[in-house]
Structure formats: C-alpha cells, structure tokens
Specification:
The protein is of the alpha/beta class. The strands form 3 sheets. It has a 5-stranded mixed beta sheet. Strands 10-9-11-8-12 form a 5-stranded mixed beta sheet, sandwiched between helices. 46% of the residues are buried.
C-alpha cells in the first residue's frame, strides 16, 4: 500500500510489564506455558479467516499477511511455536469460545458486544471504516447518497450495523475483496463499506474503485482470547508491547503497508465500540 493517513501520528505507548514472556530471550518457562491453557502444548494456535488480504490470506498453500506475521512474532516472544489456522469470520468468535484455538489474530475489532464473549488485548492497529464505490460512479459523493442503495458488507463484521442504518438492501460477503470486486461488475452493488486499508490495497492491485469522503469512524483491531485464559491475554499484551518497543512491529507494518498502522492521531476521532 502506498497511501498514508492524512491524520498525524501517535505511537501506542506503555511500559513493558513483567509477564509470561521473557524480556531478554522471549521464551516462556514450562510453568508459565502450562498456565496459558493452550490448545496444543508448546504452540500458539491463532485463527483468522484467511480471506482478508493483505492481513491474512493463503498464498502457495501457506497462510501469510500482516496478521500472520504479528502472530508469529508474538509466539516467538512467548517461546511458542506459531500455529496459524483459518476459520470463517462469521463463526470465528464461537470457535474461540469452543477452544478450537487459543487466540484470534485476524483483524477483529474490539467492540463491547464481542467483549462479552472474549477478552481483548490493546489494539495492534487502527483502521477506518470507509464507503467505496466504482471509480466511474459519479452519483454517490457523500454518505447520504448511499441511503437506500445496494451495499456490500462482510458478514459478522463491524461494518454491518453502519450499513443497516443506510440501507435495507444489503449483500453479505465472506470476503471483503470479493465485495469490492463486485463494485466493478455490472450492477451488482452500489457501494461497499470496509476498511480504508483494504480499499486502498485493492486500488493498488488495479481495482477500479474510489473512496467516498473520509472514514466514518476508527476501529481498534485487537487480539481476542478466551475469558478464562487471562494469563495468555496478559502475556500477549506484554509481547505486543515488546514488539513495538524493539522495532519489530514497525518492520512488519512497513513491509506490508509502507507505514506504521499505529501511527494515527486519535484526537477528535470517533472510536468504534
């Protein structure tokens, strides 16, 4: 991605807490590892949809993307083997509760409703919800112009509720890129609501689409773990802070987006909750 937010910069801050990960070697003792209640001993099994490029997707039969590399780096800090798996986003939270995996590292934004089922870490990036239309669409210029139109949205995502306030004619998708592609095919959709980052990445890949106005809000993608596994949540939080402090986070973010996804001025911005 070659675009940057126009809003300023703020790095996620906070001291590195003493926890289950080692500050020097990034390894966990056997006792600490056992306290995490892992699905597979010695492994951090984390889930994503595998359909949210460039965050998590399959390439040559292997999962890759920003989320995957963040998960792998966190696992290394915890002294665990990374074990990325996929699950449809529509059922990814129930899968966590059912102990199919230890964590969700799959661009799931924190919301109060989701926090009723799982515990969340601090945000590991920020993203704006934005309206997208076909590049040759000159009728939709503001959010008001979308009212009553056919809107594409990812099923069980944070974009559903805002879309419902704009129109009763919604088309649900399992993958945002498929929805954005449908913007350019005939009269399948009038608009799509998804993350600004995803839309700009699609443009970089040749999608004939454009944004409408500014992001409607900023959401806080975070890492989810089961509520009864708070030791693991705290350890992941500590590991994430280490990645930020030692520059690893910035390296991963720059690799995928040419910018730091925590570099955003939140003053006066509505945070989706």
């Amino acid at each position: 991605m070659r675009r940057k937010f126009t809003i300023g910069s703020m790095l996620l801050a906070g001291a590195v807490l003493l926890g289950a990960c080692s500050g020097s070697g990034g390894t966990a003792s056997g006792e600490e590892e056992d306290s995490y209640d892992l699905v597979k001993k010695g492994k951090l099994t984390f889930a994503s949809s595998g359909e949210y490029k460039p965050f998590n997707y399959e390439e040559n039969g292997k999962l890759t993307g920003f989320d995957i590399e963040i998960g792998e780096a966190i696992a290394e800090k915890l002294g665990l083997e990374p074990d990325p798996v996929t699950n449809p986003f529509q059922t990814i939270l129930p899968g966590l509760v059912a102990k199919k995996y230890d964590a969700i590292i799959g661009s799931m934004a924190y919301t109060k409703k989701r926090a009723e089922q799982a515990s969340f870490t601090k945000p590991y990036y920020y993203s704006g919800g934005m309206i997208w239309v076909a590049k040759d669409n000159n009728d939709i210029k503001t959010p008001d112009d979308v009212k009553g139109k056919k809107i594409g949205v990812g099923a069980e995502t944070t974009y559903e509720k805002p879309a419902e306030t704009l129109s009763d004619d919604l088309q649900y998708y399992s993958a945002d890129l498929v929805a954005l592609k449908d913007l350019t095919v005939g009269n399948r959709l009038d608009a799509v609501i998804t993350a600004d980052i995803v839309g700009y990445e699609a443009i970089d890949k040749g999608f004939a689409i454009k944004e409408v106005g500014k992001p409607l809000w900023v959401e806080q993608p975070s890492i989810a773990v089961r509520k009864d596994n708070d030791e693991l949540r705290q350890a992941i939080d500590d590991a994430l802070q280490e990645l930020i402090d030692d520059g690893t986070y910035n390296e991963i973010s720059m690799k995928w987006f040419d910018r730091d996804l925590l570099d955003i001025d939140l003053e006066g911005v509505e945070l989706l909750e």
